[in-house]
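Course assignment 3, question 2. Fill in each field.
Student: A.L.
Task: Predict the tertiary structure for the chain below.
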Amino acid sequence: MQRQSYEDALRANEEQLRQALEYQHVLTQEVSHRVKNSLAIVAGLLRVQSNSSPSADLRQALDDAETRVLTNAQLHDRLWQTGEVRSLNLEDFLRELCEKFSSSASTKILTYEAPPVMIPTDDAIPLGLLVNELVTNAVKYASPQKPGDVSISIKPNGDRLRLEVRDRGPGLPEGWQQTKPASLGMKLISRLSRQLGGEPQWENALSGSRFTLEFSA
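Answer field:
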């Protein structure tokens, strides 16, 4: 009799735990859905404002802001859709991110590589936003035309990872100072780099420019 009571209580506890996990999953999905919708609304408002602006510079700034908001929404949705709550595969993450870039471009200009290591999801969104800013800058200023004109690589370097983004454009402008980024994009790159625990480095390469960042794996 006691054994039967114990087994009944155990089954009841297991059922309560299952229901709690299901509720948590539904709640998480609902929160994620609302966050995604909220970001989409913000992006839509930016698009409306851009379309009604008489200033070309303001339209460009609003379009850039819209792209950043949509990128954030896509990254957030990707993490929750796959159920990767604590960590994710860096190789898969970078591949999917670059495939999105390639699908929105008229030509395939990107090459990329990354190791199949796991990184915390807390680092995934700033890393994704950072890569988005770097690729956007390369497309805007380097005028890439063919595969390899923009390359992204992430490689192990001791107990850290080294991100490198290169382009084959005209290089950094004369008099450019890394310590005094003028554009919002450059300021975001610096801030996102430091959020990942690294210090961004820009330099002219043999052809074009190169950005590097070492951050914790």
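Instructor remarks: Helices lie at 2-51, 56-82, 90-104, 121-142, 184-195. The longest strand covers residues 150-157.
Grade: pending
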